[in-house]
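step: validate -> pass
step: tokenize input -> pass
step: predict -> running
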Amino acid sequence: MLPLLLLPIIGLAEALAQVQAPMPAPMPAPMPSPMPAQMIRQRLQSEIERVVHNFDGVMGVAIADLTSGEEMLINADLTFPTGSSIKVPILIELEKQAASGRYSLSDTRQIDESNRVGGSGVINNFLVGSSRLSLHDLAVLMIALSDNTATNMLIDQTGMSRVNQTLDEAGLGQIRLQRKMIDTAASARGIENLATPREAMKLMRLLARDEMVSAEVSRETLKLLRIRKNSPIPMAIPASVPVANKPGGLEGVSCDWAVVEIPDRPFVIVVMTTFNGQNANADAAITRVAGLAYEFFSRMSRSTKYGVRVPPASRPK
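step: predict -> pass
step: emit ->
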């Protein structure tokens, strides 16, 4: 039998042993399960990738969710010819210079033989020397009818270098205006108007956020871009949904840049194609991509993060 005086010492040793004993390892935290909305987004990505893969040419896609900030990018850093989509930066520069007081959009310009070119538009059918159009009206013709004569007159008005300088100031150095419309000689020499889908998406997102040059310039630019056009992206969108866009096309090239203003879930979509095969039907492929994107964002606009559809009045502001 142990002496009574040793009992406290033995009790202390047992306590110290318990303190020094290793603690059991914590159970690993459960991995978060994917949200249902993520699964729908992943399916959208897969379906668009399938369209891109099966396209008879090269296609780039850039989509930005203006609510969450998420992006979907496929071949987004490839450089594509823009066709008439380059008219968006020209319009921005026109609005910028007018807002600065350099001139008024009500100022008129004479239509004469020296500035008339073919291709899309209507001015080429006007009588020589018989018409004067305001800068605003030239801008409407450039955007709504993609009028090439109006575009070239506005390039002369704004200055090609100033258009590119404004793009540079916005961090959009991959979008370049390098020649006038219907300049086939320059095109044959490899001089082309160019952009990447990623930077075109950034440009349209700046406009949608009232951040391209200024809120005034962004809003006035979007106002003209909302004129409805018979082009690939609006073909996939109900007429009740505003679409601010500008399509472009050349031989072997087709593209469209747009802000689709779905209530509560607007998004930017840019689709650009080049090296298109004879039977590529690029416009139909762009419409298909736009339709997939619209279906997704339209569904998200009516749903909670768990997929419950609620009326607009019930959604948090």
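step: describe -> The first helix runs from residue 7 to 20.
step: cleanup -> pass
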